[in-house]
Amino acid sequence: MSEQIYWYTARSSGIVALVLVTTSVVWGLLFSTRLLQGRPSPKWLLALHRHLGGLAVIFTAVHIAALVADSYVEFGPSEILVPFASEWQPQAVAWGVVAMYLLGAVELTSLLQKRLPRRLWRWVHLSSYLVFWMSIVHGLTAGTDAGTQPYIVGSRIAVLLVVFLSVYRIMTKRTVKLAARRSNPRPGRPSPGSALQESPQNPVAVPVQAG
Ligand code: HEM
Prior knowledge:
Layout: H1 5-33, H2 42-69, H3 77-81, H4 90-111, H5 118-126, H6 128-142, H7 149-183, E1 194-197, E2 206-209
Antiparallel strand pairs: 1-2
Helix pairs in contact: 1-2, 1-6, 1-7, 2-4, 4-5, 4-6
The structure holds protoporphyrin IX containing FE.
Protoporphyrin IX containing FE (HEM) binds near residues 10, 14, 79, 96 and 99.
């Protein structure tokens, strides 16, 4: 048992990291879709989303440290840092290595969010979807436990949740855009038969349909 402690740690921390990546993505989507309609509050959802992301980084670090400490397969700096450098299952491990870099970039840009251009932060942040999918593939192809019933059921639930919420997010964004376009066909240019109207509720004048 004592010889295998690192191997058990690597496996369990990998699974915990994957659960944290999944829940962070799910919480982020629950926040952006407003699916829960304000209960719990968006502020709480966002704070939890951030904490889950931070914890995912910590457990990924534990996962890697345990792999290095475990002597069954040789994992040194190059196997950890360079995709396909591992002699043991190079492809399966490469998914984890790339996911690790992306997760690091997402976390770093989130910590520096206020100092970065919003577009840059957003593009990097969107790669958290890749972190999720790569971690799923990595876990299923590299993991010792990947063939077990709980692992398979857990992965399926994670995939279904993320797919459902991502599709919901895309659909609601499209609906909002279409509604905005319908009420204002050409932003900045009033359409024929419309007039600019300003009100206390609407301090910036927007075109409104006459009649
Ligand atoms: C976002 C980063 C990562 C996540 C979320 C992650 C997650 C996982 C998961 C869920 C497993 C399956 C555990 C099991 O079934 O027992 C696993 C296994 C494994 N991962 Fe990672 N991993 C990440 C990064 C890495 C990196 C950077 C390496 C680099 C070497 C790596 C190497 C491995 C290896 C060798 C296994 C097989 C362990 C075993 O079952 O014997 N992972 N990982």
